[in-house]
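Hello, quick one for you while I still have it in my head. A protein chain has come my way and I'm curious about its shape. Can you walk me through what the C-alpha cells say about the fold? No rush at all, and the record is pasted right below.
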Amino acid sequence: MKRYPQTARFILGLETLFHRFRSENWSQYVTICGAVIGWTRGTGLMSANNIVADAVESQGALTFIQSEVALNIFALMTPDISSFCEDTPLYADLRGGMQYIDDLKQCIAAARNRISEEVAIRKAIAAERDIQRSVLRGVETPKEKLQPAKRARFELDLPALSDYETTTQGTQYPEGMVDLSRVVVVVGFSELGPWGNSRTRWEMESNGDFTMQGYIEMAWIMSLIEHKNGDNKGKPYVGWVDVTTKEPIRDDEIEERYGAQIKSHAGIHFIETENSGGYDPHKKEYMHEVAVEQDLPPFEACKDTAQAFQLRDRADQVTSWSMCHSRKAKMAIVGGSDDFQEEMSYEFARMKATCSTSAELGLGKLPSEMSRSCSTSRSGFVESAGCGVQIIMTAEKALEMGLPIYGIVVMTQMVSDKIGRSVPAPGQGILTAAREDIRTADSPLLDSKNRRHRFDREMRHWHQQAVSTRSLSDTQRSARVRMLQRMWANDLREQEPGISPIRSALATWDPTVDDIQVASLHGTSTKANDVNETDVVKQQVEHLGRSPAAPLLVVCQKSSTGHPKGAAGAWQLNGCVQMLRTGIVPGNRNADNIEQKLEQRNHLIFPGRPLQTQGINATMLTSFEFGRKGGIVIMVHSKYLFAAISKDTFDTYKSVADQRRRGANQAYIRAMLESRVVRVKEKSSWAETEEKRVFLDPSYRHGVASVDRKSPYTVSIAPDSDTRHPDKQSPTSIDELESTIKLMSKAAMQSANNATIGIDVEDLSSINLDNQVFLERNFTVAERAYCDRSADRRASYAGKWAAKEAVFKCLQVPSRGAGASMIEIEILNCDDGHPEVKTRGKATEAMTARSVSRFEISVAHTETTAVAIATATKC
C-alpha cells in the first residue's frame, strides 16, 4: 500500500512510452515490454474483495495469487519473449479475461449482498441456539484454559555416544596403533566464576542469556531459592520456594522474579564491598613508603602456620616431572584459582595493566563492556576471580572405567623466552612449539598409512621370530607392542626431532594443522598482549604451512568473564572442551571495532557473534603471563580416540559409560534438590581386613587377587571359537602354546592307533579381513556366516584357516601352491560347538585314495595366534 502511488505513476508513464514509441527518435535505443495484470488476491489493496473472488471466477474470468502474477511477469523476461521486444514493443495482457465480464460492478455487488444475507441468517440461528441452551441448562461460565507450566530438565553436559560408525565418522585412523596408557584425556571439568559454574558460563558465552535451567541453577547457587519436599506453611508441597518468604515458585517464574537480581550480581560488575572483605575502592587506605635502616626482629610463627608455608613447596619441578614420567599416576586433578585481593588489584592498576573504571564510565561503557579484547578502544583487563579444575586420566583407564571422554590433550608446553626488567612485557617464546626443520615437513612419518604399514610389518616380523624361538612372555610381548606403538604413533619426534611439536602431536591422531579450527586466546584486552599474542599465533600457523583457505576462529573468553589470573587457563580449557562437544564458537560481543594492526593477521578471524559449525576437530589454547612466560595446549576431538580402538571395545565402553551417565545425572539432581553437594565420608569404602593384601600385592584390587586376575593384554578365547575341548583354557603365552600343542598331539596319538596328524599355527594379523576375494575363495558361505557372527571375527577366521591347513597336512598330498583355494575343505560346527570336517572335490578324492574315514579337529587361540591339530583316522 505504501508503494502504490509510485507504482501507479510508473504504470501511467509506461503506457505513455507505448504511445510515443513510433513518434520519438529514442525508439532505436530502447526496448519495451509491459503487461497489464488482472484480479490479484491477497494484496493489501484487494484484501477486502477476497470474499467475492469466487463470484468473479464463476463468470469465466481468472483471479490470481501474488506468486502467480510474479511468475507470469518473470516469464516475459525469458530469452524467447525478450527477442520479440527487439523488433517492436510488447504489451502482454495478463488480466485473465476480466475485461470480458459484463457489468462487473453489478456482479460484485450481488455477490456481496448474497454473502451478507447468508452471514445474517447464520448469526440469527447461532443466537437462537444460545438462547435455547441458556433456558434449558442455564448460563455457563466460560472455562479458563489452563496451560501446563513449563518445567526445567536438569542434566549434566556429558557427551552422548552414538553407535561406533556414527561416532567415528570422518576419521580413518587404524585401530590398535596408539599406546593408550600414554594418552591423556579430559574426563571431567568444572569452575566457579562470575557466571557461576561452567554450564551457566557457557550459556552466557554461547547464547548471551541463561536458559530456564540456567536461571534456576544460578538462583540456587546464590541461595535465592531452595527445593522443598514436605510440609510448607501447613500444606504438602514439592518444588522450589523462596529462601526468605518460603513462597512456592514455579520453574518458569524464576527468570521473571530473580533474573534482574542474578544478572546484577553476576558477570563483570562493580566491586561489592560485602563480598570483598570490606574493601571499598572509594575509601582505599594508602601507605607511606619507609626506608628500613636496620634489621627487623626475627619472624616467628606457630607450627601450623609454618607447615602451611611448606605446603607451597612440596616438590621441585624435576621431582614433579619424574613423578609424572613414572606412569604410576593414572589420574590427576589439575587447575588453578585466584581470589580478588585489594593489594593485587591496586598494583595491577599502578602498572596500568587494568582499565580505568572512571575513564570507561566517562566513555559511556557499562561494566560488562569494559573488557574488549582485540578492539581498538581496549584499555586494559578487568579484574575477576574464581577457580577452574579438570580431571585428566590416561585413555586406557578412562575406557576401562567408562568415564566421559571430552577430548584428548595431545600437547602442552610452557616456555619463557628471556630475562627482562619489565614485568608485563609480552614475550614470544611459545613460538618454539612450532619449531621445525623445513626438511621434515614432508616426512613419511607424518603419513598415517605409511606408519601403519611399517608398524604391521614390524609386528609380524618380531612375532614370527618370537614363535620360532619361544623367547617372549606375555609381559615382554606387551612391552614390545607398546614400544612399537610409541615409535610409530605416540613419540614421532624421537625418530625425527626436526618435526614440529605441534605437527607431531596432531599427526599421532591423523589431523593436520588445518584441522585446528579454533584458537582460544589469553586475550586480556591490554594494548600489548593482544597484538603480541595474535602475532605469535599467526607466525605459528604460517610456519607450519596452514592453508590460506582454512580460517582460524579466535575466541577471547575474557570479554565476558574478565581476567581471573590463576584460573584463566582452566576456564579457557573448559571452553575448548565445550566447543569440541557442541561445535559452537562463541563470539566476542564487546569487540566493537577490531584493532587495525590485527588486519595483518592472516588466517585469524574475529567473530562478533556465536557461530554454529559442522564440528570442530581440534582447538588451540594459548596463555601469556607476566615475566615473558607463555603456554600452549592442543586438544583434539574424542572421536579420534574411539577410531583407534576396536568396535567391540567401544561397545563395551559405551554400555558402561551410559550407565555411569545415568547415575551421574541422578546424583547431580539429588544434590541440587537436597542441597548436599559434598557428602563427607566417615569411614573408608574399603574393608580394613584387605589393607595388608593391598599393601603386599600390587595387583590386588577390589577383592580380586593377582592369581585370579587376567593380564590386561591377554585376549581370552572367544566363546564361539572352534575348540574340541571347551573346558580347557586357551593358551596365553608362547610357553603355554608350546605345551598345549604337545598335549593336544599326545591326546590325538592316543585316540587312534592308525592315524595321521596335521598341526598348523596361524598369526591372527595374517588374516586379511578386508580382502573379500580371499574370503570368498577360501571360506564357504556357512563358514563366513559363522565367523561374521562371532565376537572376534579375526580370531574365528584364523581358527578355521588353521584347521583347514591342519586337515590338508593330514592328507599328506603335494601342495598346489600358496594361491590354491581351500574352499573344498569346510570346517563347520555341530550343535554342541565341536568342529567337524566336510570335504568335496579333490579333497574327497584324496581322502578316498588314503582310506581316511573321518577327521577330528582341535582349535585354540592365544592373544595373537590360532593353533589347530587335525587327526585323520583311516579305515
Residues 166 and 639 are 9 Å apart (CA to CA). The mean pLDDT is 83. The longest helix spans residues 104-137. The first strand starts at residue 33 and ends at 37.
